[in-house]
Amino acid sequence: MSSSSSSSKDSKPLGEQELRIAANQFSNELKAVASKIGELELQLDEHNLVIKTMSPMSDDRKCFRLINGVLVERTVKEVLPALKTNQEGIASTIEQLTLQYKAKDKEFSDFRTKHHIRIASSA
Question: Which regions of the chain are under pLDDT 50?
């Protein structure tokens, strides 16, 4: 029995239920990372729009910024550098999350290949 079971599903250390759970975990993790990337891309677009709008304005022009739910009065000279720093941070985070997504997707693909899993379409 041991020679024939080496190629059968019974020789796998994970049962069907465990494989299903692991595949769902991979899928959920990928969806969560993709969702966060989408959310950050929206924030990046907003930052780009505000920076584009404020850049031609004079440095001493009054503007308002929402910080932790509090609207504060500042000048363009004070706000623009902070916006650019935030923009760079968001872009960096998107890059990191994209790399994380690709690594997790490859890990999931390898897992599916190793365990001969096909994902049924939910259409």
Answer: 1-12
